[in-house]
Fold this protein.
Amino acid sequence: LIFTKKYIDPTYTYKNFTIEEQSKVLKAGRSNNELDSTKLMRDMPEDIKINDILTAVELCMQRMQKNLTEEFGPLPDSLPKEFRKN
């Protein structure tokens, strides 16, 4: 959500919640699984770069900002209603 504020709508607000609050709304408990990417990385061509998750999400939000601006105009005022929180 920090990238939503940074690239899409600086007026966007959110509030993180505690594990206890989360457990009240989820049907199953939190699961911290980790993907083993050993085979993926082994079989990837050497000229292909895989970004870490933070970099990948930021690059995605930058593309989203560019595409939304091209389609709707300057952000955040030109965002369609369904994209606005307020």
User: Anything to note?
Assistant: The CA atoms of residues 22 and 37 lie 29 Å apart. The chain has a mean pLDDT of 89.
